[in-house]
Structure formats: structure tokens, C-alpha cells
Amino acid sequence: VTDSKTIGIGLLGLGGVGSGVARVLTEKGEQLTATAGAKLVLRRVLVRDLTKERDFPLPANLLTTDLDDVLADPSIDILVEVLGGQTPANEYILRAVSAGKHVVTANKDVMARYGPAILEAAAEQGVQVLYEASVGGGTPIIGPLQRDLAANEIIAVNGIVNGTTNYILTRMAHDGVDFAEALKEAQDLGYAEPDPTNDVEGIDAAYKLAVLASLAFQAPIVDTDVYHEGITSLTARDFLYGRELGYTIKLMAMARRDDHGIEARVHPVLIPVDTMIAKVDGVLNAVEVETDLAGKVLFHGQGAGAMPTTSAILADVITITKGQMERPGTTAVAPTTGETSVKPMADVETKYYIRMNIAERPGVLAQITRVFGDLQISIASVIQKEIDFKALRAEIVIVTNRARESSIQNALQDLAALEVVLEIGTMIRVED
Amino acid sequence: VTDSKTIGIGLLGLGGVGSGVARVLTEKGEQLTATAGAKLVLRRVLVRDLTKERDFPLPANLLTTDLDDVLADPSIDILVEVLGGQTPANEYILRAVSAGKHVVTANKDVMARYGPAILEAAAEQGVQVLYEASVGGGTPIIGPLQRDLAANEIIAVNGIVNGTTNYILTRMAHDGVDFAEALKEAQDLGYAEPDPTNDVEGIDAAYKLAVLASLAFQAPIVDTDVYHEGITSLTARDFLYGRELGYTIKLMAMARRDDHGIEARVHPVLIPVDTMIAKVDGVLNAVEVETDLAGKVLFHGQGAGAMPTTSAILADVITITKGQMERPGTTAVAPTTGETSVKPMADVETKYYIRMNIAERPGVLAQITRVFGDLQISIASVIQKEIDFKALRAEIVIVTNRARESSIQNALQDLAALEVVLEIGTMIRVED
Question: What's residue A387's pLDDT?
């Protein structure tokens, strides 16, 4: 359809990332041509508003508000989708695939929900849908899972994949500020949205984990399969007590496959301070992949931003241009013989940190530890943190050995029903 | 030549890594077939001794001592070279390329010296030579540079690429042991060879840096272009003083390109303790790539070992099998318009830590600091560490601001000539 030495690109969306892609295609054209082995030419850009002022102005004839203009253009080989959000991006991607276009997307929301269906449609159509930019911004993780670690069985994928919450947790850990203050700061710096729900409730991280887990385990895992819990209930106290125990707190996205099935969960975790993941600070992201041959491999870098995301998008564009992926779309949809459904959270086993306020009088600890004993939960340590002798209250932290989530939930219910338990503060899972 | 659904593999060498490759090809055959889209079959193995007992025994008819048996076998598509050492591996690889075989090699010694010539020969022959396993063991770094970061200009590649020295330095830093003791331990654990020269003098790291820098800067940089300096003169004292200043000591391999040319050097470096690279401990490796679009990206994992290296080798085998690399061999030989020769070490600029013993009497510091001043070297701090009043000696540490290596070398000569300088202990470059 097009000259073999030119690859036509259609861009869906011209926000921060879209402008970045347009800018780099224009300003680094020569270098990209040398690398890709073909000239990459921006042919059409879908926008909502033709008259809006842009950071990187483009000739007016490139812009259109009609998707059909882009789909019908035979000189366009690859569509780059940077609209964000599940709708209408999902539908646009499927229409592009039906029109025989390759697609490069940065859209985690779409890939987390519709990825398996989109990749199946792409395989049928013989086109490629690549999505490196959907997780980890400029940090390569999808490509390494598809290619560099291809000989490995993936055992686990664990990471910090949301920069906003990692910024907040870093401030809370290093500077003792509380959640509300750190969030406000993140909003002022533009790291957090005015409505921060998607970030602070772990929803964004759950999207990304669904994408990673699908690929790692070759199973159709979608966002609704991923348990998620946010960081809004963490207090400065938990960081303090955690540090005393040798831990810091991170919002971790964790997927693991073993003989008992697949786990996929996002929640705050106490992790040992001396691990590499614990040192990932500020808005940076890191993903650790655990494999059978290569051991653990960590990828660390910028998790967002126009230029890092553009780097990932253009890597995919170059990959398609070089025809590097011979079997389009098959990755992440190939059925496996193993387990492909995700375990309910109730079946997960880990360790637990529980902070609570109790009445300070003889026999109270015995009542509390009996709750754990009755549920076969073994306690690793009980630490009395503060005593208010006047109010006859004490704060204690209990750390358990490995236990089932369902047992811990039962324990929390039973504890709350005890008269001597005044308040259950925080429950944080511990991974060490 | 071969059935389109089968790829024949010839193996050159059956030591630890060769046995690992043979084992995984055999035991994970089904998974590899599904991933690669073709059956990977081990056809012939070149060994020195047909009768030697092997960890992973192979049918006798697979083994041969004659390279021509392997090269002449039309059913062999890919040669995996794991002989190690520059000779005869270099010649074998070139003969394989001439015979029209693709080559996957783990051989840093060969790629560091003959990589540009081999890749040029491969491009002419239309075959591929891939070498992910030559740097960083199972940690992907070559693939990400070739593919995932392809849209970026690479500004710098800095890393810890020798596990043996990193183990020794980690022991010295954390446990205060001296070099000789840590080396002995590394030898006992099998991390260091009986003759540790290649590791402890930075030669192995220089090989790997030549490979990385060639690829990153698309310039034919070979091992002899890389300045290298080992870790044998570091003392427990330097770690102690370094820590007081907020640094740890690592053997860093560093390549950088700027408007003034390319730097490529391997030597001990004081780096801030709170950086990710500073936390890379034991035999692990890490490489940080600094780019124009994606910012800094860090790759961290196992730097050696039979199974991690096998992971990297088989990733390359799968890449060739899937026909993912359309322009064979061009990477790392394509000439660039920019500077491709490496700066002499004398022209490098960085900061310096100098530890020395001086006479303890009035006016001595003035004499010493005048040496620096005369050479236009600005001093960031002078710290008196220990005074031996009886012997009238003191130990001082001077940290400079950025200065040229040649000026520092002149300063060290001038200092040594001063009567009041009793001994120059250590000079360590500082990167922060």
C-alpha cells in the first residue's frame, strides 16, 4: 500500500503524550529513519478540537475530528493510540485492527480490560498491537517479557507501577508527613490528579498488573481479576513502626503463579528496607520479574511523562517497522495448559502487620492472642508501642507468620468484637 | 535447508554454560517450541574430549572434536558459541558466519576485540550474530539497547558488570574485611578464579564496556580503547572514610558521549550511598542507561551463572528463530556522523578523593593545597582523619571539585615530590 521505504503513522490524540510523539517524529526524523530502516511519516492526527492551541503546532491539514479519515487513509500503516480511558479508545483500536492497521497503544485502561480480545482480533487480522507504553512509561518491561526473557517460565512479576502513590509514600516514609499533606503536595506538583481516586485506590496499578500478568502467565487476566486496595488509610505511625521492624511501606502490584494457581493483587506492603524495590523512590517505577532460568531481573526507570512514554511508543513503532514480531498478537492470548484463573484474595497467604488500640489492663493480651490461636494463626511478634496510663489505653503491633487472608479477615472481625479492643488501626500485609 | 518448523542448533563448547544450554533445550523443549514457533533441535556439539564425563550427558553421536563436522551440517541453522576466550573462538565464529550460519555467542572477550569486524562480516553474509549473553548474564541489556530504547539517543551507559569484584567490594564495605581476605573468600566460594587478574584488574569489565559502548554509540569501540584500573589497592580505610562522606565504593564501567567525544573507562568510584547503583550488592550486576527521551533506565540481575547465561543465549536463539531482526548484524557497526574515537583518560573530568600521609607540623596543609591551586584544581574538602602525635604524622583526605585527570596526575606527582608528603595512599574518582 505504501512505499516500502516509508511507514505512515496516524495519531489518535494530541495531548501531552501525543504532542511528544509528533514532536519526536518531526525533530528526530533522521535518526529514527536510520534506526527503523524506513522513513516514519506522520500522516493524520485525530483531535477533538481543531482550533485548540497546541504545545507542538502541526499543519492544519494533518488534523481531523473524524476517525474514518484516519482509518480510510491507505498511506497509514500504524495507528498510535494515546487517547487514554477505556471508551471510545477500545472501540477505535478494534476498528483500526479491522481496517488492517497495526496499532501501538499507551492505554493501560483498554489493555487491562480488553487486551485479550484485542490481541485475538489482531492475530486474526494478521496485524500487530503493541503496548510497551501502557506499563512503566519509558522503562522497558513488556518487550523484555516478550523477547529477552522468552526462554523463561515466569514465576512472579512484582513492582511499583504507580508513580503518584510512590511519591506520596516516599514523602511519608522519609519526612514523616501524613497522607493528606503528601497527596496535596503531589497534586501541587502535578503528579496527582485533582480527583486522585484511580491512583490512591490502587486502580491504576491494578490495570497495569492485569497487563503484566496476562503477558507473564499467557493467561487472559483482566483488571476485574485483580484485588486492589489503596494507601489512604496508612498513617505516619505505620511508617515509624515499620521502620523499627526493618521495613518500609510500598504500594506493590504482585502477580505470582505456582502449583496452586495465579495470584494478582495490589495493596500496601511492608517490605525489608534493604531490598532494591524498597529503594525505589519518588515518582520512579520498578518491576521485578522472577524467572526459572535468569533468576530475578529488575527494571527501573521513569514510569510516566510525555518523553519517556514517547520512547516506549516509538520503540513499538520501530519494532513493527522492522517487522521484528513475526507472530502478531499471539503473545498474551495463547492458551496454556496451566491454571489461568486468578485465586480469590481470601486464598492468598502472606504475613500480616496489625496495629490496634487496646485497653491497658491485665489479661488483655491473652484475650487478643487467643483470637489468633483459635484461628490457627501463628504470631511472630507482639510489640507494645505506646501506653496512655491515664486513659488506660495501649497501642500494640502484631506481626503474624504466614497465614491465609481469610483467617486474618476472620481474626479482624473477632478482634473488633472484643470489648478490650478499642480500635483496629491498620492491617498491612508483609512480604519478606 | 531445514524443515521450516525445525531449527537446528550446533553447540561449540560443553562446559557449565554449554551443558546448561543442552539441558534446557532438552528439558524445556515443548515450552521453547511454543514460544519460538519452531522446534529447536540440538544437532552437534563441539568438544575437546569425547570421553570426558559430563554433568548433562548427551548421546555420543552428537559430540565431535572437528569444527568442520558442525559447519558442514546443512541441518544446523544456528551456532551457539560458549567456548570462552578470544582464540580460537574468534576464528570459529568467523568461519561459522562464512558458512552461512547464524551465531549466538556469550563471548565478551571476542565481541570486545573483534565484535565490529564480526558484525560487519555477518551483515555481508546476511546472517545474524547476537550476543546478549556476553554482558550481564541473564539480565537483558543488549536487547533493550537494540530494541526497547531504539528511539533514544544514548547519552551514557554506567554499570556494575563484574560480579566477582562486586562481591569483594560488598564484603569490604559491609564487613570491613580487607581486599586479600575478601578475595580469598570469593575464591573459596567459586566466585573468583585461582588467577583473579581479569576480574580484579578491571579487564573483564573493560571487555563488557567495549561491547556496551559500541552498541550504545554505534561506534567501533574495542577493549583496548577502554581505560581500566582494578580494585587491588583499595583499603578498608577508604571504605570507612568514603562512608563518612556519604559514599560507597564500586568498580564502575562507564561510557559517555557528549559534544567533546566519547569516554570509556573502568575504575573504582566513590558513589553516593543513596543511589540505586550503590545498593547493588554481592555478585549481582546492574547497568544504567541514560537516554534523551526515557531518562535513566536501570537493568539489574544475575551477571553470571549457567542458567542465567542460558536464558540470554536462548532469547537470542528464539529471536533469530522468529526472524525478529530484519537487518542482521548492522547494529554496532553502522558508522555515525559523530565522534567515534575514545577520549584519552587524561582528558576525562571528574572529582577526586585522595588519601595521604603527611608530616604533622605548621604550614604543611598550605604547601599541599598550593599544589592543587597551582594546577587550577579546586578543593571541595580537606579532612584530617588521624594524627599520630608521637610520629608527627597525620592522615588527610582531600576531595576535589571537577578537574581534569591530567591535572590530577600532575598534582599526584608534585605531591609525591614534597618532603612533607610521607605517602600517597589512594586516589579514587568520585561520581555524584
Answer: 84
* Chain A residues 17-56 with CB within 8 Å of chain B: 24, 28, 31-32, 34-37
Amino acid A2: pLDDT:
44
Mean pLDDT of A37-42: 94
Q: How far is Cα A70 from Cα A74, in angstroms, rounded to an integer?
A: 9
> What stretches in chain B show pLDDT beneath 50?
1-3, 325-337
d(CA B13, CA B17): 8
Rounded to whole angstroms, how far apart are CA atoms B273 and B432?
Answer: 10
Percent of chain A with pLDDT over 70: 95
* B151–A35 C-beta distance less than 8 A: yes
Q: Report chain A residues whose CB lies below 8 A from the CB of B143.
A: 143-144, 147-148
Query: DSSP readout, B116-168?
Result: HHHHHHHHHHT--EE-GGGSSTTS--HHIIIIITTTSPEEEEEEE--HHHHHH
Could you confirm whether A343 is annotated as catalytic? Answer: no
User: Where do we find the cell 485465586?
Assistant: A343
pLDDT of A4 reads 57
Q: Each residue of B160-169: pLDDT tens digit?
A: 999 999 999 9
CB B252 within 8 Å of CB B288: no
Q: Is A319 helix (H, G, I), strand (E, B) or coil?
A: helix
- ipTM for the predicted complex: 0.92
SS3 B298: strand
In sequence order, the 6+-apart residues with CB closer than 8 A to the CB of B317 are A151, B7, B9, B36, B40, B78, B80, B104
CA B268 to chain centre: 13
DSSP assigned state of A144 = I
C-alpha dist (Å) from residue A6 to A12, A40, A74, A105: 20, 6, 12, 21
Residue whose cell numbers read 546472517: B127
Measured in angstroms, the CA of A97 and the nearest CA of chain B are apart by: 21
- CA B92 vs CA A112, B321, B353: distances in Å: 48, 21, 45
Query: Residues 6 or more apart from B253 whose CB is under 8 A from it?
Result: B157, B158, B159, B160, B161, B162, B205, B206, B208, B209, B212, B265, B266
Interface test with B, best of A152, A291, A325 (most B CBs within 10 A): A152
DSSP A292: S
Alpha carbons A412 and A390: distance in angstroms, whole number: 27
One-letter identity of residue A79: L
pLDDT tens profile A88-144: 999 999 999 999 999 999 999 999 999 999 999 999 999 999 999 999 999 999 999
Burial class (CB in 10 A: 0-12, 13-18, 19+), B27: exposed
Q: How is residue B147 written as a grid cell?
A: 530494541
**Confidence (pLDDT) at B2:** 44
Distance CA B428, CA B173 (A): 15
C-beta separation of A144 from A159 below 8 A: no
Residue A401: φ, ψ to 5°? -80, -175
Distance, in Å, from the CA atom of A102 to the CA atom of A76, rounded to the nearest integer, reads 9
For residue A249 the three cell numbers come to 511501606
Of A129, A128, A136, give the one whose Cα is nearest residue A111: A129
